[in-house]
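Suppose you are handed a protein chain with no further information: no name, no annotation, nothing but its sequence. What can you learn? This example shows the usual starting point.
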Amino acid sequence: MNSRVGQAQFVDIAAATQFQGPGALITDDYQKEITDILRRKSVLDGRINYVPATGDISTYYEQNTVNGGDFIDPRNPSATATSNDRTPHGVKIKALTNQVNFGHYDVTLGQQQNNFPELKAKDLDDMLNGIALTHGKALWRGNDTALAVPTTRQYMGIPSQITNTFTVGVGASIVAAIRAKVAAMVGSEKYEVLPTAIYIHPIGHYHMTEEVRLAVESGKMSDPFGKTVVAGLEVPTIMTAAGLLPIIPEPFMPSKANETNTGNTDYGIAIVTESMIEYHYVGEKGMFLFELGTTSNLLEQYVGVKYGAPVAKGPSYAHAYGTIERPTIAAVG
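A reasonable first move is to predict its three-dimensional structure. Written in structure tokens, the prediction is:
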């Protein structure tokens, strides 16, 4: 249902008839279910922490040193006072909205015909799903360039926040690059890092599994993958210095044409510690739904609003973001 008014015209009943004959007048009919397998959310969204924002700029403190601790002469003990700095960080809260209007006549006629009895509920739900879809894409592809001092109305995407980066060249092993980067993160003497998941563009995922298949078939390696279930999807796991990590295809992961090789694309891959990715929300973890009432043109108006912003804590050590250069495969849709 919407507020647009089409142009009415008379039509010949024969134009709506599929067949006429003795005892039969067959007109067009249709299935009562609307075909719909549209994507409505990000995999990452269901696996990060939602926490209440502390203010319009939600603030947290990060400690990056543990100072002190010296060997001394046990017969002449002495100590030097030390302190540890804590650095404040902030993330500006953003807002997402969507709206749907229902015309009184259209809704009333639809109820009388009873063709799609649940259509209004579906349209309301999909209005909120539109917010969730925009939110899910922006978790990865939001175009803001700063957390506390925004330059756009969108989120600052997780890949843009992460400063620990790597690249996998067109001839390099994706599996080896993942293991090397995880080893470097776990090998830190300063931070106790244990990544929990690997998110990868689905086409990058294909190139990774194809790399492994060819190596296994040629006898160069044994299959390094196990299996687990994430968000209802069976995904491979890979043994790393942090243990077995799930490799999760994420369709909203960034990808862009390689600047040097026009036939190749740089597919995104993120190694993350999910407990250190937070969404700071205001009011509700989900969305608010408001009914604005009937206006002078007899429209029922509903508005959905979501307040919050994502932050990847420890962007230089708790996570890593990379690109995989491989031949381009066009995504469907």
